[in-house]
Prior knowledge:
Elements: H1 6-12, E1 20-23, H2 24-27, H3 32-39, E2 48-52, H4 57-64, E3 68-71, H5 76-91
Helix pairs in contact: 1-3
Amino acid sequence: xxxxxxxxxxxxxxxxxxxxxxxxxxxxxxxxxxxxxxxxxxxxxxxxxxxxxxxxxxxxxxxxxxxxxxxxxxxxxxxxxxxxxxxxxxxx
Length: 92
């Protein structure tokens, strides 16, 4: 399921997703949404993939406990491979 915001995710998704992909440029410097998802119980069991144009993308990813981080523009092959790998490992 694709949702536009963390508020929509919490409101509409009853079961934790397989993984979360977040664009850090869209959420700005406020990671409140990702913190809310973690409080909803998704943080420990749901892999997080983040992306950003920022030079500090890896530091921000590390502070959020992201399973993977990508600098934009994305290398789409590596990005989709990572999604597939994390989704598959989350299912097992």
